[in-house]
Specification:
This is Phytanoyl-CoA dioxygenase PhyH. It is built from twelve helices and twelve strands. Helix 4 packs across helix 8. The strands form three sheets. It has a seven-stranded antiparallel beta sheet with strand order 1-8-5-10-4-3-2. It has a three-stranded antiparallel beta sheet with strand order 7-6-9. The chain has a two-stranded parallel ribbon with strand order 11-12. Bound molecules: 2-oxoglutaric acid and fe (ii) ion.
Length: 345
């Protein structure tokens, strides 16, 4: 334990978090992760996120890194993210850039995202029964135009304003969803992401996603805040007992909970369910505490780059940053944003 009266600094704070005297160590990262996933009350999550943002800004200051003033970046889109509305960014890759990414990835091994069988395959010959595929960290890191996407000013501006400090890319992954005809599973079912008290995701479409057959992303508008949902249910004249039951089922679920389509439809109505379509190269962002899913494609496989911006690396993952050319030409701030996945050498 730290000496009595010793000042808590960023350098020594981890020692205050460990109960070494009792001969047992409690990993506070683990405790923090459990908290991120278990605190379901929106206002408590927001208070924790704001405190965390203050801490991150102080830490950045110590590292002589500049965190842009959250009010001077993309406040308008950040406000939408806070309220639980999706943000349309528009195209961030042109057709040639999309082709570069696709032809690079088609020549790399794809691994099943879930399940025991980890054998790789190629995206043009998906293995039977594999619904969702991913790439290795090495192959993700070397993908063409990756830095352009991760550090895109529109994405960083909205993420910085939303999070209240310079973000950390805590997930960066190309995800294939294959047209298998199987029932929706996992992230194809309605859920909330809860890696951090506040996090947002940018989805960059790499295949055209024009209608329900293409497996579009689906976002439930205004599903982040139980008080807002309560007011809306009141406004629709839902009886108090039933209203509280719906709220309980929408907010008090265990982490990793999946929500039935019928529950979402009943609580929010079809007009609050946004189906986000677009052409390859298009990007949209959302606060993924809001309820969402990626529909299974029915015609052709669908490829998306998913970028999660948060206040810190996810405590769930072990990262192995990959050295890539071009990193040493970036500003220290940009290197910080990408540090969980990419390094200079
Ligand atoms: O692929 C999608 O559209 C959704 C993915 C998702 O929700 C997730 O990875 O958490
Ligand atoms: Fe998700």
């Amino acid at each position: 334990m730290a000496d009595q009266g010793e000042k808590v600094t960023f350098e020594n704070m981890h020692r205050f978090g460990r109960l070494q005297d009792a001969g047992q160590e409690i990993d506070m990262n683990e405790a923090f992760y459990v908290a991120c996933r278990s605190v379901r009350d929106f206002r408590s999550r927001e208070a924790a996120a704001l405190a965390l943002a203050d801490t991150v800004r102080a830490k950045l200051d110590q590292l002589s890194l500049t965190s842009p003033d959250p009010d001077r970046v993309d406040r308008a889109n950040a406000d939408k993210l806070v309220k639980g509305e999706s943000v349309s960014i528009g195209p961030i890759l042109d057709n040639g850039q999309v082709r570069d990414v696709l032809s690079y990835l088609m020549a790399k091994d794809v691994y099943p995202m879930y399940g025991e069988d980890r054998r790789p395959f190629r995206a043009d010959r998906p293995r039977d029964g594999v619904v969702i595929g991913r790439y290795s960290l090495q192959d993700i890191a070397r993908a063409p135009h990756l830095l352009h996407m991760l550090l895109h000013p529109r994405l960083l501006g909205a993420a910085t304003a939303f999070l209240g400090a310079l973000p950390t890319v805590s997930i960066c992954t190309f995800v294939w969803s294959f047209a298998t005809g199987q029932e929706a599973q996992n992230m194809q079912l309605f859920h909330r992401d809860n890696d951090d008290f506040r996090q947002c995701k940018a989805f960059v479409l790499l295949t055209d996603t024009l209608d329900a057959q293409d497996g579009p992303h689906v976002y439930v508008r205004h599903s982040v805040d139980q008080d807002m949902v309560r007011r809306r249910l009141e406004g629709r004249g839902i009886a108090p007992d039933h209203r509280e039951d719906l709220l309980h089922r929408l907010f008090d679920g265990v982490p990793n909970h999946r929500y039935a389509d019928s529950l979402v439809e009943e609580a929010f109505g079809p007009e609050s369910v946004d189906v986000l379509t677009g052409r390859a190269g298009d990007c949209f962002m959302e606060n993924t505490w809001g309820i969402h899913k990626g529909l299974p494609p029915r015609r052709a496989p669908r490829l998306v780059l998913q970028i999660q911006y948060a206040l810190q690396p996810s405590l769930f993952f072990t990262y192995e940053p990959v050295a890539i050319p071009g990193m040493d030409r970036l500003s220290a701030e940009d290197r910080y944003v990408c540090r969980a996945y990419l390094k200079a050498r």
